[in-house]
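Annex B. Sample input.
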Amino acid sequence: MKSNCIFTMAEWPPQLVSKIMSDELLIENARVYARRRQLQLAERLGFGIHGIVFSAENKSNFGKSVVKIHRYEEPYLRELSIYQRLLDEGIGEIVGFNVPDLLGADDSLRIIEMSLVARPFVLDFAGAYLDKAPEFSEEIWADWNAQKQEQFGRRWPEVQTVLFALRKLGIHMVDVSPSNIAFAD
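Annex B, continued. Sample output.
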């Protein structure tokens, strides 16, 4: 019997090994993209089911950006199409919330590069739908609304205003949390 909690990789569950390898591949894709775009990857800003996000600095003009490496193609394509719509419409803010500008993308690496934005902001459209709302039952929508109202508390009406403004643009955001709709205070 082992007296500590250290395991060899051979003893890890296969899904954990798969995730680790997947993250390594995502990071390598970020390095490839950074070399191509003359970027220096900096701190990891976030990670989740859709991928990993790094801040980056442009070596030639000392500008800062964000590089998001997507794990799967579908969320990548959804997010890219939404940032492309926002770029085409010249939208850099939604009812006072900053929205990142699309700076570049690479389909083969599933990477989106965007501008770094300050709070308040709205970002992370990998779970959003473009031009067609998801078809959820009334019960699911009611549960979703209750959960989001609890998450945002007194700020929920402001979040609803942001979501309504996005819907007017054909963007149906369902992955809503305080990390992707963030207030200044």
